[in-house]
Design brief:
The protein has a single domain, classed as P-loop containing nucleotide triphosphate hydrolases (Rossmann fold), CATH 3.40.50. Helix 3 packs parallel to helix 5 and helix 5 runs parallel beside helix 6. The chain is 34% helix and 22% strand. The strands form two sheets. Strands 6-7-8-3-9 form a five-stranded parallel sheet, sandwiched between helices. With 218 residues, it is α/β, with parallel strands linked by helices.
């Protein structure tokens, strides 16, 4: 699913560098990404999604070389193939839960909003314990509920690659368990690849592989 060869990335006017000679993540795997603050965990996800591109090397996602695509091609690939749970949720405050889940289908012409998609949005919300709150504004939600809305939105297009940036950060133990189990369940039921940044080493036993970016960043 994911093949990285001779990757090199740096930010302009920064001492940060990420260098990965070789890394493979098998399709259907659940991979945890760990490392100290400032070692490029979010950058790694952004590279996998095509938000950032490396200065050197190759990243293949599902046999597609992401770096060889144009900006618009990378965006199209990301929209159609990847689900991304952002660390800060990226929810629109003036919209309801349901409208936030459906937002990618309302703003991206590549995605067609059908009755089946709307039904799936409701079903995902119900699975996450949000079914009775669909018309509620997201500003009225707890951190755990906001996180679950973000996960529903990321899963709506049934991605084969799911990226999650600190999805359990700042959550209480109950919501932490609900959140990580929802990601595991989706990956296993859909044979999708899950790559999750986490600082919680107590969760690592649930993953198939652990990638320590301290080995690659400097």
């Amino acid at each position: 699913m994911i093949k990285i060869r001779e990757l090199y990335f740096e930010y302009p006017k920064s001492d940060f560098k990420l260098s990965i000679p070789e890394l493979d993540i098998k399709g259907g795997a659940k991979a945890a990404v760990i490392g100290p603050s400032g070692y490029g965990k979010t950058t790694f996800l952004n590279l996998l999604s095509g938000i950032n591109t490396p200065q050197e090397g190759k990243i293949e996602i599902d046999s597609r070389n992401i770096g060889s695509l144009s900006d618009s091609e990378r965006r199209s690939f990301r929209i159609s193939k990847i689900g991304f749970v952002f660390q800060n949720f990226e929810l629109v405050e003036y919209l309801t839960i349901l409208d936030n889940i459906l937002l990618p289908y309302r703003i991206n012409p590549l995605l067609k909003l059908t009755g089946d998609v709307s039904s799936r949005a409701v079903e995902l919300a119900e699975q996450m314990g949000l079914g009775d709150k669909l018309k509620r504004n997201v500003t009225k939600l707890s951190q755990g509920e906001m996180q679950r809305v973000a996960i529903c939105r990321a899963l709506l297009n049934e991605p084969k690659l799911l990226l999650a940036d600190e999805p359990t950060g700042n959550l209480d133990p109950k919501n932490k368990e609900i959140t990580i189990q929802a990601l595991f369940d989706y990956a296993e039921q859909n044979e999708s690849t899950l790559v999750t940044v986490t600082h919680d080493h107590g969760l690592l036993g649930g993953f198939d592989t652990v990638i320590d970016l301290a080995v690659y960043a400097n």
